[in-house]
Design a protein that fits this description.
Length: about 200
Amino acid sequence: MTEDPRFEWWNDRYAADDTPWSVGRPQPAVVRLVETGAVEGRVLDVGCGRGEHARYLGERGHPVVGIDGSERAIEQARAATDAADVTFRVADVLALPADLGRFDTVLDCGLFHVFADTDTRRRYADSLAGVVDAGGRVHVLAFAEGAPEDWGPTPVPRGGFAAAFEDGWAVRGVSETVYESAGGEVPAFVARVERV
């Protein structure tokens, strides 16, 4: 294994099974997105971790590619998945490889809030623009203001999505929800963003 040093902390967490952000099942907010028809076509699951959401989407008929920067997370996702239309790759969301193809929907469940500054969040949006055509959607589940700030990611203010998704994107809505973690429910937002 040739681990990227930028992802060493994440590899260590997955190796030690110290992943309080992963509860072993899809987040209720993601289930609601699927049940309301907000997820369509081919899906890119960014920051997929062990692949709970990718498997859930695959079981509902979506071809899914899950990516994560952690090689250990991808190893665990592959070991837990045998669906033909669900694949996993080690990839950096800030520099998506061109051979991923195009996606109708991107799901981000707990990655966007890892980026602590607007410039990095804009790089993230610019990278996604390379794999999403006009009309494609990005759904982001991220910690909101009011989330504990002494552990975990950087809470995202309601306007933080529009600040990142500028050129070629339109934020269609930001809803309050919760993110389930091993430590309990955390205030969160679901942002619905469209490529225009």
